[in-house]
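Field: COMPLEX_INPUT
Field: COMPONENT_COUNT = two
Field: RESIDUE_TOTAL = 502
Field: MODE = joint
Values follow.
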Amino acid sequence: MNWIAENIGLIGSLSLEHLRQSLIAILVGFLLSIPLGWVAWRYRLVRGPVVTLTGLLYTIPSLALLMILPVLTGMSAISEANLIVALTLYAVAIMVRGVVDGLDSVDPAARSAATALGYGSARRFFAVDLPLAGPVILAGLRVTAVSSISLATVGILVGVTNLGYLFTNGLQRRIIEEVFAGILAVALIALAVDLLLILIGRWLMPWTRDPKKSQQAVKHATRQQVS
Amino acid sequence: MIEFENVSKHYVDGTMAVENFSLTIPARKTTVFVGSSGCGKTTLLRMINRMVDPSSGSIRIDEQEISTKPAVALRRSIGYVMQNSGLLPHFTVAENIATVPRLEGQSRKSSRVRALELMETVGLPASMADRYPHQLSGGQQQRVGVARGLASDPNILLMDEPFGAVDPIVRAELQQELIRLQQELDKTIVFVTHDIDEAFLLGDQVVILAAGAQKLQVGSPSEIIEDPANDFVASFIGTDRGARALSVKHTPHGRVLVDSQGRTQGRLIEDGSSS
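Field: COMPLEX_OUTPUT
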């Protein structure tokens, strides 16, 4: 525990770096996945290819991707951008599927009701389809977030500094506490981000809150004599 | 007034949903399309707000061809109440009712006032305004659906089996409410059902349909019961059996009417009350 106490400043600053790198990737990956997922959901012909190809991205070993990307994009291999682009690709790989599944989960009756009320198609997507797909999309986003945060540590192997540093440095110097500190910090960040996503979900999707309470409300409503 | 003229709808796979259908739906009356499932009655209804476009023929509302109007604007101008309420699960009761006013650009505040007003009209307590649809009973959801259909004060209200999914007691209540509402509001209502009793109860004009939206008979409930167009109609409306096949029975206290099960349904009051 001594090592942790003595290096708490280092752990803190590495954590912030780590969080920043992964949050950018999670956010950009999420934003890219919405239109991609929509296209795959909307056009049956491209659905198979889009879902399969984005899914296959995930099978590329991370170290290899970090080596290949600079060749393809001209970025420096040791730049933070290289790591963030790689993490974004992995995020897209998971999220596109989630968006497609989310849009699939929307009750067609709700969609058709919205059209009958006079929603134009773009407005309907943002006001009805996307929010109703929300719970499934959020589930995908949570997996993406945790996975990106843990995957980001690989960056240290190409020279991008983040919590991964505690692993390589700890292994080289045989400081097992340092490695554990890294694992703990990654886990804590992942948990914190996951919790934050749950809270944001509750805030944005109030109709999904507390199913127990709404069950009681149903009972209460039926007890009142208004049919 | 809504006019169908030689309207047909066929799908790519060759099925004819509607074949050469013509009908005039009078303004400020309730017209009921009744027929068994798959007869095309819902397709006819959905043609009125362009949820389905006909393959041929023309549909006019107040002499105006609807295919020339933008579909989205047309839909906002027509109230639509659907089976299983069709409420948006992520909107509260008030938000659901206020959907069309909000789409039309009214402020959050004024459309909420309108929503609360409509909740009273359809008999829902204001305390339910901020609940979500899944927190309501089926009957309450249907009331919200009706309130939503009325929100923009449309001239036309389309109702697609709106009471099909609620239990018989609640259904009877909602039917009476609709009759009361219609007396107050005087809308042109087009109502789809497969329940002939509901059709006769609510309809000023009843249209009995067979497959391909073929009209078997059009008329007021009385006209149809008194003079069914053919045996199929007679059997569909049940004048040959059950509660509508009444016969006279003499009793010491005058004549009564009994149904085909032998149950007495009511007393026969002769014209001029001489007996």
